[in-house]
Amino acid sequence: MDLDALDIARWQFAITTVYHFLFVPITIGLSAMVAGYQTAWLRTGNEQWLRLTKFFGKLFLINFALGLVTGIVQEFQFGMNWSDYSRFVGDVFGAPLAIEGLLAFFLESTFLGLWIFGWDRLPRLLHASCMWLVHLGTLFSAYFILAANSFMQNPVGYEYNPETGRAELTDFLAVMTNQVQLVTFPHVIAAAYMTGGAFVVGVALWQLVRAKGTEGSADRPMYRTAARSGAWVLLVAGLAVTVSGDVQGKIMTEVQPMKMAAAEALYETEQPAAFSVFTIGTPDGKTEKFSVTIPNLLSFLATGDPEGEVEGINPLREQYVATYGQDPGASYYSAGDYTPYIPLTYWSFRFMMGLGFAGMAGGLAVLWATRRGRAPTAQRWTWVAVGLPLMPLLANSFGWIFTEIGRQPWAVFGLMTTEQSVSPGVSATEMLLSLLTLTALYGVLAVVELKLLLGAIAKGADPYVEPVLRDDDNDPDRPLAFAY
Q1: How many Å apart are CA 129 and CA 354, to the nearest integer?
Q2: Averaged in consecutive runs of 10 residues, what is the pLDDT profile of the chain (484 residues)?
Q3: Of 123, 195, 309, 472, which has the most beta carbons under 10 Å away?
Q4: How many other CB atoms are there within 10 angstroms of residue 133's CB atom?
Q5: Judging by DSSP bridges, how do beta strands 275-281 and 288-294 pair with one another?
Q6: Domain of 373?
Q7: Does some domain include residue 262?
Q8: At what angle do helices 257-264 and 342-369 cross, to 10 degrees?
Q9: What total of structural domains would you count in the chain?
């Protein structure tokens, strides 16, 4: 089957968005870890905290730079491939994104520059505060972007203007306090802390295993400390993800019941409803062949009541057809079907949860292995070092795939379908060219990212150098000091 402009636009947005979001949770989580390490150094004067600050600070900067480059493409796509969407919701969608760029990103970039060049220039407390402000900027950035996305899940604070055919912003506060936003933000941030903690654990474990029997063995206590601190962040954040995810599931069932039904491939309403841990079915997801289920769990996840009723796909589809109308010639994703792609929705939901819980289990294993001064050095821990950071990272990606696929066919739930959002004046050939170009570019950036990260990780933390303010601090023309 030949791809049309809509299919290509979907693929391009999916590839660029998932790729970009690989950097986002690491940036948020790692900025908090670096700020925490620098604060620990200020409080204790222990040189290991300063070495960890600079070591993971370097890794943070590499990740931040690549995340910045890949994020720019997202905004261009709204105008290039999704112009009808931009025209329809630009008044609402553009407001939080504009504030994100003017406030949050400005905060991040300004204080990150001060942190980079301020070593041996700024007073220690002020310098450490710069990284906390960078982290605060990442939180602001996430909040405004998630507010825009939450409008797509549950549109509020707008009024439809039939003369212009546009949704117009009437209540900015309602957009910023959308009930979906209020549960999504803590869930995403906690997942980012999980990812940052797992990243630190993976790097530290790698150093512990690599240092066995070498000159680097003297650094084992430092890397053990990093592994334990990262594991604690991973575990505590994982518990926060679990709690916030439970609340989010109930809100999701309230505002998008089809998404919860699709997450379980539940075609008919059930009370109570079981949750299937694993299912083998037909390719279209409509017929179950084999399943391992937990009784009543889906009812609890959806309603908070183990005996609660969960609406199925078929009755919900009938409700949507009655509300929004039926297009007899509609494609699978377009208005008239109102059903997301069930196999991908079903499995992305389970991969999200499964990888998240696996990451928490890995964190517990690291805490056990490093108890009472121990440091794991066996080669088998290399697999943990490599795999553990990937678990919450991929769980984040599958979570967003589920969130966006489960909303289909809607771009803005109940208002505009994805099919109606695509740019009418852009041909399939033009979209295919941009898709191939961006995919190739992102492939090159992936190689650059891995080369820089692996090179910095292999080098390890730099030797300790006592930081002091320079003698020419009072000279306004003195050159700035670059820390790396």
Answers
A1: 36
A2: 77 86 91 94 90 92 84 77 86 84 83 89 90 93 91 90 87 92 94 95 89 62 90 95 92 90 86 77 60 79 83 88 68 64 89 93 90 79 88 93 90 87 85 87 87 87 68 52 50
A3: 195
A4: 18
A5: antiparallel
A6: 3-254+330-457
A7: no
A8: 70
A9: 1
Q: pTM for this structure?
A: 0.89
Nearest to 313 by CA among 266, 357, 380, 360: 266
Nearest CA to 89 out of 14, 148, 171 is that of: 148
* In-domain check, residue 22: yes
Task: Report the alpha-carbon distance of residue 103 to residue 441 in Å, rounded.
Answer: 29
Q: Does 470 map to a domain?
A: no
**Residue 325 belongs to some domain of the structure:** no
Joined together, the tokens standing for residue 432 give 């295919």
As a three-state string, the secondary structure of 141-159 is HHHHHHHHHHHHHCCCCEE
CA dist., res. 411 & res. 314, Å (int):
21
Residues 335-374 as b or e (16 or more Cβ within 10 Å = b): bbbbbbbbbbbbbbbbbbbbbbebbbebbebbbebbeeee
Beta strand 416-417 with 410-412 is: antiparallel
Contact 141, 21 (CB under 8 A): no
Residue carrying the six token digits 């710069």: 130
